[in-house]
Structures are given as structure tokens and as C-alpha cells.
Specification:
alpha+beta, 302 residues, globular
């Protein structure tokens, strides 16, 4: 009933609104950054393309692995069905596709590990095929809806608004990287991507209009910055990385940054995904901002 094949990344059959996570330019940039091979796993029903999954693979000692690159937060499964299709028919058809995708991946890869996107709520097809589904979390904000800050975040916001910060949308990758280095040093963590390579990746996607940078500036210096991804005509944006100078964190800069980012993107997108709620500190901050908790699943065979 369904035919599956791996193809080189292409926009063919994906329509006018291509999610960034399966966009061919994004896939190729991520694969180059991580030294991996990228594909789109395409599912057809007859001649109609009905589903697509981004795939990143590596080979070592003859063993093929499906990986989840650090810089690619989701490897979701996207569907395209004709208008007017009954919801229960869609549910059953998607379950069938998921099961066939799972069997295909099991046969091709000795090891597999990838993160679905929040819209992939039904993981039964993966689990029934013998794979494991681990719940992970993110926060999403509907940009057409108000949000409610907790009392302590309102205090931080008032403090930040007294600091004469300037808000801008400007691509300045080296300044972002400087803040990112400071963040990882402060937390005692290691970033597993070389910074020259990261800068090249940022520039590549910004040139393809898949990436934007938003900054808080004080005294002519960027003190808080984040990177936002979004595909062509996509209705959701994804803030994948944020770094704020330590002294400005104490002045509420991160709270103000989040507020201004939401207000700026409200006229461009339907929703904003903050890409992560899996550490206590980060999860607490995003919850205090009034954003909506969402679950997504990590699929593995071990």
C-alpha cells in the first residue's frame, strides 16, 4: 500500500511550506557540520507523497547508525493528506505509515537514535515494532495568545526595562559565539562542535533565509542573543540557542529577551517553540514565563 525510499534531500513534493527540519538546505548544512550523510525517507501512496522523515546516518566499521545531531533538535515525521480526509482515517493511515517507517529503519540501521517533533503524538507504530519511545519536553507559545508571567519574572522584567537595553534583529554570528562560549565555560560544559564550523553553519543557513538572530544590546555590545530557525512559509519558529551575559542575567535580561522575542515574532508565525525543557533550571524559567509544556519522543532501539 505504501512505498518507502531514501532520497537525496530535495524539495520535490513537499509543497510551498517546507518545515525547516526537512528542508534540503538545512539537512545538507547539518550533515556537513556533523560529518554525516543526510537523506529524506519518503513515503508514497501510489504517486502521492504522504510523509517524509529527515535521516542522518554515520558508518563506522561497517555498522550504519541513525543519529540525532546536536544542532538538529527534531527529526520529526511530517504528513501530507488531501483536504476533507476523515480524522479517524488519518489516524489509522498515519499509524500504518509509522509502523512501516519503523520496520524500514530497523532493517537498515544496527543502531538508531532520533527525536520526533511535538506534533508526532502517536508513537504506537514505533513501539509496536519493538523500538523504544522516551518522553522529552519542550515549551511552546501560541503567538496569538497572551501569557502570564509569575511574580518573580515580573520583577525581573521591571528591572530589565530600567537598564536601557536596545532590541534588534541583526545577524552577528561571532558575537553570538562569544556569548555561547562564555555560557558553556560558566556551566563547565563542553560544546561538541568546533566554533569556526558553527560560525560557517550559521552563515550558511542565514544566507538561505532559514535562520535569524535576535539580540539585546547595551552600550553598543550584544549582551543576550538567540538563534531562531524557520522554514519557507512555515507557521512555527524554533529558538534553538540562547546565550546571555552573566551580569545581565541578574538584571532580568533573559526575561526581557523572551518577552520581546514573542512580541517580534507574533506577526510572522503562529507559534514559537523554545526547544527544550529537560533540565530543571531551563524548565523552571520557561514555565514561569507562562509558555505551554509539550511532550515529544526520542526513538531508540537500545
Amino acid at each position: 500500500m505504501y512505498d518507502l525510499l531514501l532520497r537525496e534531500p530535495s524539495s520535490e513534493g513537499l509543497g510551498s511550506s517546507i518545515p525547516v527540519w526537512i528542508h534540503p538546505d538545512f539537512l545538507q548544512a547539518v550533515a556537513s557540520l556533523h560529518g554525516a550523510k543526510c537523506w529524506q525517507l519518503i513515503c508514497y501512496k501510489g504517486e502521492q507523497l504522504v510523509a517524509a522523515l529527515p535521516v542522518f546516518e554515520k558508518r563506522n566499521l561497517g555498522i550504519s547508525r541513525l543519529i540525532s545531531p546536536q544542532i538538529a533538535y527534531y527529526q520529526g515525521l511530517w504528513f501530507w493528506w488531501e483536504e476533507g480526509r476523515a480524522p479517524n482515517r488519518i489516524l489509522l493511515d498515519e499509524l500504518r505509515v509509522i509502523g512501516e517507517v519503523a520496520e524500514y529503519l530497523k532493517k537498515r540501521y544496527r543502531l538508531l537514535h532520533f527525536n520526533l517533533a511535538p506534533h508526532n503524538k502517536d508513537v504506537r507504530g514505533f513501539v509496536w515494532s519493538g523500538l523504544k519511545a522516551k518522553p522529552l519536553y519542550t515549551f511552546v507559545h501560541n503567538l496569538g495568545q497572551p501569557y502570564c508571567l509569575l511574580r518573580d519574572e515580573r520583577k525581573k522584567l521591571r528591572l530589565a526595562e530600567e537598564q536601557n537595553y536596545v532590541w534588534e534583529e541583526r545577524f552577528a554570528p561571532r558575537q553570538f559565539i562569544d556569548l555561547h562560549k562564555s555560557l558553556y565555560t560558566r556551566k563547565g560544559k563542553q560544546f561538541n562542535i568546533g566554533y569556526p564550523e558553527l560560525e560557517q553553519w550559521l552563515c550558511q543557513l542565514q544566507q538561505k533565509k532559514l535562520l535569524s538572530q535576535f539580540n539585546l544590546v547595551k552600550g553598543g555590545e550584544i549582551v543576550s542573543s538567540n538563534i531562531v530557525l524557520s522554514g519557507e512559509a512555515e507557521d512555527c519558529a524554533y529558538t534553538i540557542m540562547r546565550s546571555t551575559r552573566e551580569e545581565d542575567l541578574r538584571l532580568g535580561a533573559s526575561t526581557l529577551h523572551s518577552k520581546l522575542l514573542v512580541e517580534t515574532l507574533a506577526g510572522r508565525y503562529r507559534s514559537l517553540d523554545f526547544c527544550g525543557a529537560n533540565t530543571p533550571e531551563v524548565a523552571r524559567f520557561k514555565a514561569a514565563m507562562g509558555f505551554q509544556l509539550k511532550v515529544f519522543y526520542q526513538i531508540t532501539n537500545r
